[in-house]
Structure formats: C-alpha cells, structure tokens
Amino acid sequence: MNENKRLPYVVFSLLLLLCPFFLPSSQAAEITLTPSVGLRTEYDDNIDFEHNDRKRDDFVFTVSPGLRLDYKTERTYLGATAKLNVLRYADYSDEDVTNQYYGLNLSHRLLEKLSVRANAGYSRDTTKDTYFEETGLVTRKSDVHRYSGGAGLSYTLSEVSDLGLNYSHSQTDYTSEDDEDTTSDSVSLTYSRAFYDRRYILSLSPLYTHYDSDNSTVDNYGLSLGVSYRFRETLTINASAGARYSDAQYHKSRYRLREETDTNWNWTANVSATKSWETASATVGYSRDMNFTSEGEPINVDRFYANASRKITEKFGAAVSGALSFTKSDDTKYEASEEDSRYYSISPSLYYTFTKDYRLDVGYTYANDYDKTLDRYRTIDRNRFWILLTFNFPYTW
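Given the sequence above, the corresponding structure tokens read:
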C-alpha cells in the first residue's frame, strides 16, 4: 500500500484514538443509537444504462440495514454511521451486489474561540451508484472503493469575523483494469465577516488542490468570494464564485503518445437558495468545479439541482427532486479523450409517515443521458418505479 492510500487509514485511526480525550466525563452527554432498515422494491427498464443497443429490464429488491451513533455534549459532537445496501435481481442474479458505506465525524470546541473537526469515510459500491452524481457521466459498471479523510479548525477573530483552515484527502480505487485510480489532496483557508446582525456574511477563500492518477497530474489553484444572506428566517441564499488556474501534466496513456503539459484558467461557482413555508420547503442550486473521469482525465462539471416537498395532510405529502449536469473535458486537444455530455434525472414521489420513525415512499425516477462524442447510441434513458419502507429505532440515554 503506497503512502497516498495509507493516509485515510491514518486519519481514521487518529480519530478513534483521540475520541476518548474529546469525551470528558464531567460533561452531561446525550447519546443516541439508531438502528435502521430500509426495504425497497423497484422495477428498472434499463439496468445496464450504457450507450449501446442492449436494454435489459428487471425487478430489483434492496435491503438497507444501518446503524448511527450520535454523541453530544456542550463542547463535543461525535457521529458515526454504517450502512449496507444489499441488492438482489429477480432475473439477472449475476448483477447482485452488496454495497457498503461508513463514516465518522468529530467536532470539538477546544477553547472559547477555537474549534477543531475531523472526518473519515469509506465506501464500496459500483460506478453506477455514485458516478452520475459526481461527474454527470455514464461509464461501464465496475466496483469502486472510495476512501476519504480530513481535518480543520476555526478561530473566532472577533464578534463578526472568523478564520477557518481545512484539509481533505480522497482516494478512489477501481477494480477494473480499464479505469485509473485517483487521489486528491486539498487545502483551503477561509476568512468570513458578518454584517447586519449576521444576516449577511462575506467570505474569501484561497484553495490549492493536487490531483494524481496514472494518466495525469494536476495542480489546481483557486480563489473564490462568497456571500450568505438570511431573510426573515424563511429564505437563505448562499453563493460563491471564483477563478482557478490549473497546471496539468498528461502522462503516456492510450490517448497520448507522449507526455504533454497544459495550463489554463477557468472558473468555479456554488449557488443555492432554500425557502421554507409552514407546510412546504424548496431548494434550488448550481455548482461548477473540476472532477476526474474513471480514466483519470480532468473534466469540468456544471450541475443544476432542485428539490421540493409539501405536506398535504399531517402524515401524507409529496416531493420532487431533479438534477441536470453538463460535463466537458478540461483539455480538448485530444479528441480520443474528450468528454462532452448532458445528463438529467427527475424523481416525483409520495410519502406517508406512520410515525416520525416509520415512513412509506412511492415514486418514479426518469434519467436521460446524451453523449455528443459518440457516433451511435448517443441518447439513452431509464425508467424506474419504486416503493420504499424506512424504519428507524432510536435509543437515547
């Protein structure tokens, strides 16, 4: 195991070792342990969702046991989660899979003005489950392991200003030999200042990120300006925009016959607005940033998203969510490695809450992908009808 792959394990181990020091017995603590289970039945008319002429349909049954631990004191919060998604196919049993997700978050106020936080996580699933959301791209199905770790601190400079420092690391390992493993290390510094009783908050954030794969190495430098606005407790707007400069070294691969260097300027953005009413809520947003394909090539992803929910009665309600992504290569000199696609999905649903911990959801999800770089089968779509039962069993002491 190389040093990059070892780092997430080190971060995770340090968190576990430091936990006892962050949990003083003299403070009153609230501990909540929440076992849960989700039962989902789904009809999928295109389980492969690939750009070819094959279209297989099937019923998919999913059992999702989970466990969550929350520990809270006046100065400390510790949250740990573990979840499995056990998928079983009615006709195509060779597609059966068990996905795993684990996470740990820790925050602690060391001093009156100084707080620290740390996190670690691991997931094992397939590229179909998370790749769309991250990159907006359709890719061949393969197993993928993701490791993450990070730490940060925040310091209160005055009643209206704060300073924050953050570091994060991620590692993506594919089991397929056609895909390239990727690592990412990021460091950012954020200065924020509040105005008008903290209804307005302005922030300035320099950022450095290093991406590395067998196909490319990218150093990314960025600077963004952000604003947060809270209006009458029911409307919150967060927005940031900035410039980034990338210095990319493309190594030898099936796309390039020799090493190449490329530098360019681009921009980033992250905007969201949340509105709440007495019986409804809605969120809309947009983001733009650099990411990586499963082949180790840098891409720019523009993503629009929205979701809304409304209570019709005390226990019965409706919800809808949707997302639209545009993905293009950061380097377009090589047509063989070029990405240029559009992906969108929409999912309306109805829900019924038996109690606050038991819930039934019935919904439909439509997804559509268009890949401009292909000569055939540019457009594919997918229809899924699903029923989900969720049970939580919290115990607090």
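The longest strand covers residues 260-276. Try to locate this feature in the token string yourself.
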